[in-house]
Design the sequence.
DNA sequence: GATGAATGAGCGTTCATTCAT
DNA sequence: GATGAATGAACGCTCATTCAT
């Protein structure tokens, strides 16, 4: 390992423990222990447990958005772009299941209360990729003329459900299956 | 109301408080207060807070399944049956948003860890209605030949996502919209 | 001992320890220990450490005011009444030196910030005895025509100073001395 | 200012913060911050927080005694000398209210426990000015024949009380009033 | 000497749980 | 059964102090 600074160690420890045991199952002392620092040290880097969790969330959110944003090939057909994005995202979540579990817990907790509005796949500004895609599709008559929130639910409700099942070990997601799922979600939103 | 026994009062108080404030924000003493019983009384009915929560979950689960099961008109076309079921379920959740919020919290918490396996819409045995419907559809070549878990995710991932948005006040669900959503989920699972 | 309830035990323990070691030298755990209750028990009776201290203050303040108020023989000459009151008060403080030390600490701490205005000998309403005495004296031309606050300082500044010296063991106050001190304070305020 | 060395900066910062917020409210890190030195630097100059506070006390005590000592005109009448001293001292405290507040806190805290014996106006040796004045007065039959401690209390109890009221903003001390107070304290100790 | 990141004991407080009544 | 006062382990957090740089 190169030089994993303490801040990162703490964030990483918090991610592990919260993903595994939930917020109240991950006391600061335990996070400190896992990060191999003293309890007080955490407070050199984060003002409070809330702050730590919030910053961890923002960090993870950033990584996820990075995955989405790097996929912006506007010239290809909509369906292909959608499937691509879907696959990318699903891939990221399944490969980073700790992050997925953390984010899910975050959204379902008082910590994330204020973030529920703009949860990972619904934040205006950051997910212009999706919005553009959907709006283009709607205006071209390719995608059903439904409110954006509904289109999001139709497309990413299954995505999250499938990741949950994967994380819980119910299913093994290989490439073929992932593509079928992506295609099915497209079927849900595309004009028949 | 006639004579709502203490056990029910406790469960009801727990539902209210947990749905509203999360597990964190609903201490036993507060639940007791809301249920108008003494703190110790809860332990006459439930072994521990975990047990209380678990039994509350089971009770709510039962109510939800009852809604599903009563809808078993096997002779109608599959699509219609699916849309019917979907609508019923969505209606139940939106009308009982406390229960919905509780169940969501439960699934996203260590309390529900061991129950995640058999979450409300994926429990083998209880939801034969769905399984039968899906299996029939697959064998008749009407529904895509995918693992059951995937079909569930495709169908009910959006359902839960939409209820979440409704509960948070992002969307207003009226009958037309509900039907469109149900139809879209059918589009996702039906063979194209 | 009759039936010293827990609340009183806690207050008494707090008085002892705070008088002796100051506010930050008397942690809740130590107070609990001295009162022979569990740490959490204190919070059955007091909302917080602040509240405990405030209520203790109010209780002690009440006892002191009771001593003052019971001395209201308006028909005797002013000088005699003043000396009487002075003596009573001085006697109470020297006999209850823990209370004296607690009150002094209280007034010199953030806890007592809002009470500094109306510190034990300057609270309007409660000490009407003193005010009346002083105002009578002024209007009769017996006492110097000075602002009330100044008269208080002249009369009770020495009282508190003397009690401090007594508490610290610098002086032994017997009746003769006390009376001389009282007389001297009268000399300070009386018109020459 | 030329080159205020670090030690002075630290003492000054400690004075400000403790006078303002009490011992509680002035952590070492905050003192360091205000003094523009690193937290650890304080320990180059002071062994511990207690030591710092003790040395700060001694320094302030020195300044106060300097004020007293410079006033030694032995040939003038006793009353005049007393009033002069009283006024000087009162003036110093009101002009240096931070120091006054610090000293008051110090005396009312465990920090000052061992110093209470020799508090500012009662330390044998340092305040020979006062002792001489009082002893002369007693032997000349001008001042009451009372123990020195009592005379101190009679004279300076009001002084401190009045400064407290001034610091808290209850009274405005102008020259006329100050002189009246000084005279009244003289009345308290002088033989009638 | 000076630094400031790191420490960890100890604080005030909460709350699931118990048990004498 | 029902009570609710009492418990005490465990929490989040502070801050005087240390020590490698």
Sequence:
């Amino acid at each position: 390992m190169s030089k994993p600074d303490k801040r990162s160690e703490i964030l990483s420890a918090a991610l592990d423990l919260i993903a595994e045991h939930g917020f109240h199952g991950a006391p600061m002392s335990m996070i400190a222990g896992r990060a191999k620092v003293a309890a007080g040290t955490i407070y050199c880097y984060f003002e409070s447990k809330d702050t730590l969790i919030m910053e961890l969330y923002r960090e993870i959110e950033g990584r996820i958005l990075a995955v989405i944003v790097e996929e912006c090939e506007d010239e290809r057909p909509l369906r292909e772009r959608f499937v691509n994005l879907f696959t990318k995202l699903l891939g990221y979540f399944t490969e980073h299941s700790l992050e997925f579990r953390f984010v899910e817990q975050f959204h379902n907790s008082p910590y994330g209360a204020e973030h529920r509005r703009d949860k990972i796949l619904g934040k205006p500004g950051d997910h212009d990729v999706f919005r553009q895609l959907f709006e283009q599709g709607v205006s071209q008559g390719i995608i059903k003329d439904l409110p954006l929130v509904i289109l999001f639910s139709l497309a990413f409700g299954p995505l999250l459900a499938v990741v949950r099942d994967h994380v819980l070990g119910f299913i093994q997601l290989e490439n073929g299956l992932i593509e079928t799922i992506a295609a099915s979600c497209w079927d849900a939103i595309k004009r028949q």
About this structure: The interface with chain C takes residues 21-25, 104-105, 108-110, 116-117, 122, 144, 146-147, 149-150, 152-154, 156-162, 165, 168, 170-171, 177, 180-181, 184-185, 187-190, 192 of chain D (CB under 8 Å).
